[in-house]
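Deviations from the work plan: none for this task. Representative record:
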Amino acid sequence: MIGSLVAVILLAPLAAALGCMLLAQARATAFLNLAAAIAVLLAVLRLLPLALSGPYTFCKGYLIVDPLGAWVLLSVASVYLLASIYAIGYMRAHGRTERVHRFYALFAGFALTTLSGPLMNNVGVYWIAIELTTLVSTFLVCFELDRESIEAAWKYIVVVSGGISLALLGIIFYYWGGSFHLGPTYDLTWSTLRDVAPRLNPTIALTAFLLVLIGFGTKVGLAPMHTWLPDAHSEAPVPVSAMLSGALLNTAMIGIARFIQVADAARLGSLPRVVVVVIGVFSLFVAALFITRQSGIKRLMAYSSVEHMGVITLGFGFGGPLGIAGALYHMLNHSLNKSLMFFGAGNAMQAFHSKRISRIRRVLCAMPIAGLLWLAGAVAITGAPPFGLFLSELTIMRAGLMGPNGWATFVMLALLIVIFVGFLNHFRAMYFGADAAPELAPRPVPAKFHLSIWCLLPMWMALLPLLLLGLWWPDAVSRYFAVIATQLSSAGAP
Amino acid sequence: MLAAQLQPLAASVFSLIAIASLLLAFVMLGSRWLNDYLIAFAAESWLIAILSAAVGYYGHYPELYLIALLTALFRGLLLPYLMLRIVRRLHVDRELHERLSPSASLVVGALLVLFAFVVSSHLGESLGLAGTVAVLALTVMLSMKLIGFLMLVVRGEALSQILGLLVLENGIFLGSQILVPGMPLLIELVILFDLLVVVACFGVLVRYLVTHTGTSSTHELRRLVG
Amino acid sequence: MRDILLQIAQVFTVIALAPLLQGVILQWEERVQRAQGPGIFQPYRDLWKLFHKQLVVPETASFIYWIAPVVAFTCMLTVPILIPVLTNFPLPQSNMGDILGGGLILTLGAFLITLAGLDSGSSYGGIGSSRAVMLGILAEPTLILVFVGITLLAKAMLPFVVNHLLVEQPAVYWSPAHLFLVAAFFILLLVETDRLPIHSSTHIEVYMIDEARILEYSGPLLGLLRWASMMKQFILYTIFSNVLLLPWGLSIRGTALGALGAAVALFAKFLIVAVVVVFVETAQSRLRYFRYQEPLAASFLLAILAIVANQLR
C-alpha cells in the first residue's frame, strides 16, 4: 500500500513532465500538470496516517517513508497543487504560448525532484536530489529570459552549487569517520549514521556537522548564505517563486533536521545547537534589516522567507518536543502562507504592471477580493493571530525559554516585532497610503481589474486552511508531532 | 583504513599525484588565458583518474578501475571539450576583469594552503594518523576547495566561475579516492554524471547570458541589489 | 688541524674560483649569441685592473661608504665556513650558524651595500637602493620559506644533515618536497644573482637595479664590491648544488687529494647549473618592473607546497 503510494508520488510528476515535453500544446500541458499535482496531493494525504507506524524502507533501502518525511511531503504537495492552479492563470495572462509546454515540463520535473528529497534514505542520494533541484529550478528562474532573471539564475546556480559542495565535503567526512568502525564499504543511510554517531571521532563529527550545516544552509537560505535567495525568488515567475519558497526550502530543511539529530547522537556537547541557534537568529536579523527598507514587492516576500526559515531553524535548534512540533507546524503554515503572498504579489503585478512597492497604490480599488485575501495573508505572515503562524511561533518561543539558549528567544521576539512593523508598513502604504511623489505616480488602473478565477482560487485555498490551523491545532497533528519528536531525539528509536 | 597501512612506494605515488594536482590548480589560479585553464583542468582530471586506478590497484578495489576510466573520459576529455566549445562560441580567450592580479592570487592561494595544512595536521593528530598520506590527502582536498572558492570570488569571467566550481568538485573527488575508496559504486557514478549535467546546464546558461546580456563577464551582473 | 686547514681551503676556493664562474657564464652567454666573448678569465683581469686604479671618493660620503664594501666582502668570506663546499662532514667552526644564519649573513652584506647606495646622495644610488629593497621584500620571505622547507625536509637546521639525507635516501631526493624546493630555489637564484628576467643587461642607469647602488664606487673599493657579488653568486650556487640539487661529489674523509677532487667536482656541478641558467637567460626577455612579482609569487607558492608535501614523512 505504502509502496504504491510512493510510486504514485514519484511517477505522477515524472509522467507529467514527459507528457508535457511530448505534447507541446499549451492547454493540454497545463491540465496534465494539474492532474499530476492533484494525484500527488491525494497520495500524500493517504500516506500521512500510514507513515505514522514507523519508518518503512523500499528499493533495497534507498527510499524511506517516515513521519517527518511525510509531513514535509504534505507541505510540498500542497504548494505544488496551489502553484499549479495559479500557473494556469498566470501563464495565460502572460500570453506566451509557444514555450509554455516547456515551462510545465520543467515545473513537473522540479516538483519531482523536490518530492524525492524527503524520501531518500541514503545521504549521498539525498545530496544528489538537492543538486538536481538546483539544476532544474535554474531554468525555471530564468524562464522569462530577460537580463535580471538571467542574472538571478546565474547567481542562484553559482552560489548554491558552491554551497552544497561544502555539504558534500561534510558527507564525505561523515562517511570517512564511519569507515573507521564500519569498514570501508557500507551504505550511508540516516539510521546507520545515527547508530555510528556515538563512536565517531568528535573532531570529525563536529567538522562534518558544521560543513553540512553551512552547505545545506545555503540551500535553505539562512544568512549569511542567503544572498542568492532574494534574486532568485523575485525574478522567477510567480508559481515558481511559490514552489521555491514553500517547497524547496522545506526539502533542504529536512536534511538539516536529520543532521542535527546525528549531531545529538554524537554527543558533541552544546556547540552544534548553539551554532544552529546563532545562524537562525542571524537570519532573522538580516531579514529584519532588509524588510524594513525594501522597494520590490517580490523581494519583500523573499526576505520574509529568509525570516521564516530562520524561525524554523530556531525551532529545530531549540529542540525538544515543543521545538520540533513548532518547527513542523511552522513549515506547513509557512508554505501555505508564502504561496498566498506570492500569488497576491503576482496579481498586484498584473494589475499595476510594476514590481516596485512605490508604484502599487490603492490595491482595494483594483482588486477587492484578492486584495482582502492578500492583506489577510500579510497579517498572517507577520505572525499575528488568529492564523497558524502565530501558534507555531509561540510554540517555538516556549521551547526556547525552556532550553539553554533562552537569550535567543528574546532576540527572536524583538526581531519579529521589528519585522511585523516593517512588513505591514509596506502594506499600509500599498492599501491605504497616499500616492507617491507626482513623478512616480502610478499609472491609472481600471476601476476593477479582472482577475482570472485561476489566480483567485488558490488564494482562497491557501487562506482557509491557514485560518483553520490557526484556530484549532488538531489533536491528531499533536500526536503526529510527538511521534516525530520521539524519533528525532537522540534517545529515540530508528 | 587504507591510507594508514600503505607501503611506502604506494604512499609516495599517491602523494606525488595529489601534490601535482594541487600544483595544477595553482596553474589555473595564476594564469589569465582560458585555454590554459582548460588544459590544466584536463591534466588535473587525468591525474585524478590515475590516482583512482592506483588506489584500486593497491587497495584491491577493482571497481575503481571503472571509475578511473570514466573520470578520464568524462572529466578529462568531455568536460574540457564542452567548455572549449563554449569558449570558441563566446570569442573570449582571456580574463579581462579580475579583482586580484594572478600573482597576488597565487600568494593568497598559498596562504590558504597553509591554513588547510594547519587544519588537517590538527585533524590528523587527533585521529592518530599524523604522518600518513591521509593527512596529505586532507590538506590537498581542503586547499583545492579553498582555491576553488578563491577562483569564484576573484574571477569575473563566467567560464572561470564554472571552472572554480569544477575545481571544488575535483578536490572532493581527490580526497574521497584516498580517504574513502570503498564508497559504494553507485554514489561515485552518480556524482560523476551529476558533474556532466552541471556543465551542460552551465553551457546553456552561459549562452543565455551572452545573448541577453551581451557580455560574459559576471561583473556586469549588478542590477539586482538590496 | 687538518680540519682547520680544510676550512681555510674552503674559503680560498670561494675567493679564487668565484670570478672564474662569472667569467664562464658571461662567456657562454656571448657564445650562445654568436659573439666572440671576452674569455673566461676576464673577471680576473678586471679585478686586477680595479685594484690598481685610483680611488675617488664623493664629498658627501660618510663612514658607511668606506665600511660597506669591507663588511660585504667579509660576510662573503664568513658564509663558506658554514656550508658544505669541499667536505660533507661539518668542520670545526661550521656550527657557528645554520642555514638560516647563513642566509641572514648574506642579507647583511646586501643591506649594507643598499645603505651605501643611499649614502652619497646621488639619485641613481637612490633608485638602485629602492629597487633592490623592493625586490628584497618579495624575495627574502621566499628565501626564508625555502630554508624552512629545507629544515623540515631534514628535520635539522644544518646543511650537512640535508646533504647526507639526500645522498643516502633516493626516495627523499625524488620526493615532491625536494623537487619543489629545487624549483623555488632556482627561481630565487635567478633573482638574487641578477639574471634575466629580473636583470637589465643594458648599461642605461634608469633600468639598473643592483648596479645602480655601486655607481659611486671606484678603484679598490669597487673591486671589493665586484668580488663580493661574484662570491655571493658562487655561494648561492654552492648551496644550490651541494645541499639541494647534486649533493654528491664531496670529500668524505678530508684528504688533500679528496679536497682537490671535491673542488674540481664542485666546478663541474657549477658548469651544469650554469648551462641551465644561460639557457633560461637567453630564452627570456626582461620582465617589466611591475611583473617582477610573478616569478617570485610562483616561487613563494612552490616553497609552501614543498612545506605541505613534507607532511608525508
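The beta strands of chain A are 56-58, 63-65.
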